[in-house]
Specification:
This protein is mainly β and about 375 residues long. It has 2 helices and 19 strands. The strands form 4 sheets. Strands 4, 5, 8, 13, 14, 15 and 19 form a 7-stranded antiparallel beta sheet that branches. Strands 6, 9, 10, 11, 12, 17 and 18 form a 7-stranded mixed beta sheet that branches.
């Protein structure tokens, strides 16, 4: 805000995220002051300002007035560019690894989220019923991730507890966020799925300028589903917290694997087209870990046992039990063997005899 006696104007500029809004008062005449006092944040007649004030400047005399209606005022106004809006920042784990439940990931952002109103979360997921442990009681809701802007640990009761969040329910991926413009601020939307057991799916949620975008990429099915929600978010002002795969607020954690979670902050984070999200994945994300197939020069993966020697069979029968721990991602398998019929022993009459049993875990 500035006053110019020659022009007879008071000019005010609101520097917002999307644009600058000048407010001009014309035909204004001030008295020549003999004393000037400045109140910052509070004066005797009003309540104190709630929030932060940074780099305030008072200028007097010739050159103090900057005409905000003229081109180039941004370079002349003091501290106009002190706060950088939507600075780019990308967070990811330095170690290339698969995150297996019940392990969870938490990350807090402070300076990276100063004056940010564009952000996104992306992560590869793999729903597994029987790995690394067996899920005996599937819940109605399993938490995938939650990105919040409130320091107080709670859920939905205040704005910002769910800035970007995703859940797995029976038959749907559910995205949850908030709308600051509505009295009931919780907003949810769903994307259905048919079968995801053992399949890699990429979950993406983003926000910018009253637009929430959620997408699920089904890699093995080679398809994507997406949704858009019109909501109003508050600007991130120096704090955000990310939680991946956590048991919280009565919701069970996602069961299975996570891979390469990433937080996108600032300009360029928001993508609202599934094909462009796929291009971003190829450009920025690590390649999914894939178990290589057997080479052409096949060799027996296990040692063979000569079962024709009846004297050694009983003592060596335990050698016929094998585990293939490095075949976690194989989705096709078979078993074959030679066998010879023989007369059952008298003591085995009317008893079932097992030849072979093959166990697998669908991962």
């Amino acid at each position: 805000m500035a006053y110019n006696e020659n022009a007879g104007e008071v000019q005010t500029l609101l520097h917002l995220f999307e644009e600058d809004k000048p407010i001009i008062f014309k035909g204004v005449q001030h008295f020549v002051p003999h004393f000037i006092g400045i109140y910052v944040g509070k004066d005797p007649h009003s309540r104190r300002f709630q929030g932060e004030l940074q780099k305030w400047v008072a200028q007097y005399g010739q050159g103090a007035f900057v005409d905000v209606m003229k081109k180039g005022y941004e370079d002349t106004l003091p501290n106009f560019r002190h706060i950088q809006i939507n600075q780019k920042y990308l967070w990811f784990e330095k170690e290339d690894r698969i995150i297996q439940t019940p392990e969870k990931v938490e990350q807090t952002f402070t300076s990276e989220t100063e004056s940010v109103d564009e952000y996104a979360v992306g992560v590869w997921t793999r729903w597994l019923i029987a790995f690394p442990t067996t899920l005996t009681d599937r819940a109605d809701v399993h938490t995938i991730f939650r990105f919040s802007s409130t320091r107080q640990y709670q859920d939905k009761s205040e704005l910002g507890n769910r800035v970007l969040s995703a859940f797995l329910t029976k038959g749907n991926y559910e995205f949850s966020t908030y709308d600051a413009s509505k009295p009931t601020n919780a907003v949810d939307a769903k994307l259905p799925y048919d079968n995801i057991e053992g399949e890699w799916t990429y979950i993406y949620a983003a926000y910018k300028n009253k637009n929430f975008y959620g997408m699920v990429l089904f890699k093995d099915q080679q398809k994507a589903a997406h949704l858009n929600i019109e909501v109003t978010h508050q600007v991130l002002t120096g704090y955000a917290h990310f939680v991946l795969g956590a048991n919280e607020f009565g919701y069970k954690a996602f069961h299975g694997w996570f891979y390469d979670p990433r937080i996108f902050l600032g300009a360029g984070s928001y993508i609202s087209e599934s094909q462009k999200v796929v291009e971003m994945i190829h450009k920025l994300h690590r390649k999914l870990p894939v178990t290589p197939q057997q080479a052409e020069d096949f060799k027996w993966p296990v040692s063979l046992l000569d079962t024709t020697n009846q004297d050694d069979l009983d003592s060596k029968k335990d050698q016929l039990n094998f585990e293939f721990t490095d075949k976690a991602e194989m989705q096709s398998y078979s078993i074959g063997f030679w066998f010879q019929n023989a007369v059952l022993l008298p003591e085995m009459e009317n008893e079932y005899t097992g030849l072979v049993r093959f166990n697998y875990k669908w991962t």
